[in-house]
Amino acid sequence: MEYVTHPLIRENTIERRMYQISIATTALTKNTLVVIPTGLGKTTIAALVIASRLLNEDGKVLFLAPTKPLVEQHARFLKKVLKVEEIVSLTGEVSPEKRKETWERARIIVSTPQVIENDILTGRISLEDVILLVFDEAHRAVGNYAYVFIAREYMKTAKKLILAMTASPGSDPERIMEVIQNLGIEAIEVRTEWDDDVAPYVGKKRIEWIKVEIPEEMKEVKEKLEDCVKTRLNRLREMGIEVPESSSKRDLLALQDAIQAEAAGGNSEMFEALSILAEILKLQHAIELIETQGVRAVKSYLKKLVREAMSRGGSKAAKSIVNDPNFKKAVVALSKCGT
C-alpha cells in the first residue's frame, strides 16, 4: 500500500488514492462542492486540502459540521493524520470567553455552525484570517441555516477558499442550485462507487435478486404513477430532450448533470427541464418502493411528498406532482390498500 507523503501529514496515515488527490487538486484552486458516497473519504479529501493550504498560506482553517458528534469525529481524525498542534473543537458547551481565546490560538477549528454564527454576530471572532472554510453536510446550506450566513460573511474576506462536501445532495435541482449559490461554488466534483478511479477501493458485493409479483391492489397505484412519469417525459420531448421510458436512475442522474451544465452556461430553458427531471426522479422512487418495499413504504413516501408540497418552502417539483390528477388517483388507489 502506498501512502501520501506531505510535510503536514503523518507518515503512513493516508492511503494514496488518485481520485482523492484529483478532487483535492481542484479544491485548492476553486470553491468546490464534493459529492461522494459515505465511506469513500470525504474527510480524507478535506485533510489533503487543509494540509496543502496550511503549508502555503498564513492563517487558520475552519471546519464546520452540523452536530457535536460529527465535530468530535472530524477533530479526532484530523489530529490523527495531521502534524498540526492546535486542532480544537468548539460547540455551544464551551463558554463564549473560552471560545474567543481558543479561536485566537488555534490553527484548525472544528465547530458547529451555530456557535460560529453567534460569535461573528457578537464580534468575538473574525473570518479575516481563515484561509479555508470547510462545510460538511453541505446540502444543509439553504434557507436561514447558519451555513448560509457564515458563507456570506466569509466571501467578503481576501483569503477565501471554500470546500463543501456531501454524500446526499438530493434530487431537487432548485435546492441544489440554492446550495451552489449560497456557498459560492465554482466547481463540482462527483464520484460514485462505479467510477473507474474509485472502483478498486470498493469491496465487491454479492447481490441475489428475488423477484416477487406485485399485489393486484398495488398495480393500479403503479400504473397511475407511471402515467405521471409518461406525461413528464412527453414534456421533455417537446423541449427537444429525448429520454427513453426504460431509463434507469443512473441514466437520469447523468442526464441531470448534463442539463445542469447547459443551465450553468446560460440556457434558461434548461432550468424548467431540470425541474421536470426532478419530478420524474421523485416519481420513479415511488414506483421503486412499490416494487421493492411494499404498501407501508409507499404510503410514507407519498405522505412526505404531500407535506413537502404543502409546506412554505416546498419545492416546485413536489407541488407539481401533488397537483397532477394521476397522482391524486394513485393516492386514492393506495388508500384502499392494506398495510
Automatic annotation (TrEMBL):
<protein>
    <submittedName>
        <fullName>DEAD/DEAH box helicase</fullName>
    </submittedName>
</protein>
<dbReference type="GO" id="GO:0003676">
    <property type="term" value="F:nucleic acid binding"/>
</dbReference>
<keyword id="KW-0067">ATP-binding</keyword>
<keyword id="KW-0378">Hydrolase</keyword>
<dbReference type="GO" id="GO:0004386">
    <property type="term" value="F:helicase activity"/>
</dbReference>
<dbReference type="InterPro" id="IPR014001">
    <property type="entry name" value="Helicase_ATP-bd"/>
</dbReference>
<dbReference type="GO" id="GO:0016787">
    <property type="term" value="F:hydrolase activity"/>
</dbReference>
<dbReference type="GO" id="GO:0140097">
    <property type="term" value="F:catalytic activity, acting on DNA"/>
</dbReference>
<keyword id="KW-0347">Helicase</keyword>
<keyword id="KW-0547">Nucleotide-binding</keyword>
<dbReference type="InterPro" id="IPR011545">
    <property type="entry name" value="DEAD/DEAH_box_helicase_dom"/>
</dbReference>
<dbReference type="InterPro" id="IPR041755">
    <property type="entry name" value="Hef_ID"/>
</dbReference>
<dbReference type="InterPro" id="IPR027417">
    <property type="entry name" value="P-loop_NTPase"/>
</dbReference>
<dbReference type="Pfam" id="PF21210">
    <property type="entry name" value="RNA_helicase_helical"/>
</dbReference>
<dbReference type="Pfam" id="PF00270">
    <property type="entry name" value="DEAD"/>
</dbReference>
<dbReference type="GO" id="GO:0005524">
    <property type="term" value="F:ATP binding"/>
</dbReference>
<feature type="domain" description="Helicase ATP-binding">
    <location>
        <begin position="23"/>
        <end position="187"/>
    </location>
</feature>
